[in-house]
What we know:
Helices cover 53% and strands 8% of the residues.
Amino acid sequence: MKTPPSLDADQARGRLGELTVVDVRTPAEYASGHLPGALNIPLDELGRAVPALQEAAGRGELIMVCQSGGRSASACARLAEHGVPALSLSGGTGGWVARGHELARPEGAPARPVWAMERQVRFAAGSLVLIGLALGLWVHPAFQLLSAGIAGGLVFSALTNTCGMAVALGKLPYNRAKARGTDMDATLARLREGSF
């Protein structure tokens, strides 16, 4: 995968008023804090948003944002397949905060933020590996295949730069748009109209 053009946190902050900022994290991550003015289009909804993003790209530059930069780079690559140029925020919202820049939070956002998707994946994968090993020792050795399956999935995830576990975790109620009051249709309408 070709590395998309990117801006660091300071460069992006200086150009925030002229960029269309699209946060590709889950709605729960977005509600935990996002760049000011960012619109939330989760990575698994990106295909649905391509026409609106094409319109927005015709009016000005797009910058894709996630927690650390991996999902935003993936979003840029997917958009490039449709002829939509986009920048990626290097370091993501983590880099943004590390540079001392403020995050916006929707009104009524939960006081306790939801873990970033990468952290959720690490926790789930580690837990499943430990469960497989424990069951393999105390119940039946065949349970160790669970650990082997998770290890194989992680290797596949690294080689393909995809993450099936993140997609599955994104479907959980606390990570979904309806659980956080995010209305994808309203977001796409705002993107098409340029009102954000």
